[in-house]
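Many introductory courses stop at the sequence. We go one step further.
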Amino acid sequence: MAKGDQINLKPHFKEEKLPCEGTVGDLFVFTPLGEGDVDSRKQGSASLWFCTKGDEGNNKAIWLRVKFDGQMTCSVPPPIPPQDHPDLQQR
């Protein structure tokens, strides 16, 4: 059993597209699998999306997929995060 809090965002099962509605900061877990289906893909079929611009009138929400840069299991220590990301700059 894991120590500390874990957050499990329930996926939207059997989805084929992201919603047109959204509020900045919304998280959406997308998977083409049905609830309880076994995922046979090596890296899994779920993806995490973040709403960066909410829907306004006729303008639909803008969603960006969260890209992960590592993979691990409970028996392998986590990799050291890359240290070569550029500094954030205000535009």
